[in-house]
Amino acid sequence: MANFRTHLAASTTLGLGYGAAGYALGMPWESSLLAAGLFAVGGILPDLDSDQSVPLRETVTFTAAVVPMLLLDRWRHLGAGTDLIILAGGLIYLAIRFGLFPLLRWYTVHRGMFHSVPAAIICGQLVWLLMEDPNPGGRAFKAAAATLGYLLHLVLDELYSFQRRGILVRRKRSAGTALKWWGKSLWANITTYGKLALLSALIAQGSPWSSQSQAQSPDPASQVQSKKSTAVADSPLFDRLRR
Question: For the chain, which residues make up each domain, given as ranges?
Answer without folding.
Answer: 4-209
